[in-house]
Amino acid sequence: MASKQNDLRSAAERTLRETRRDFDKRIDEIRAELKEKGPEAVERVESALNELKADLQSGFDEIHVSIDDELEAGRRQVREHPLLAVGVAVTAGVVIGMLLGKCRD
Questions:
Q1: How many domains are contained in the chain?
Q2: φ/ψ of residue 36, rounded to 5
Q3: pTM of this prediction?
Q4: Of 19, 78, 58, 96, whose CA–CA distance to 70 is shortest?
Q5: Tens of pLDDT along 69-80?
Q6: Domain range for residue 31?
């Protein structure tokens, strides 16, 4: 159970890092284009991009906190209702097994 949660968390963090890296790369490309157009344009757009970057960082932080909260809520539900958690897992396994079994036929 902990392994799946760690895998989900790692995947989410990896996606966030990749998205952040993509935004940073695009921001650098825009800066390079603007330097060709003039210093005033660079300053205006750079301030707008810095604001956007701060907003994105805030959004990433909120998502990170939200993921942590959801993982903790899931852990709490499993601790409070372990038999229900096992039942849901078994049911999901049976349904997936049936679906995959039909695909092979």
A1: 1
A2: -75, -25
A3: 0.44
A4: 78
A5: 888 898 898 899
A6: 2-104
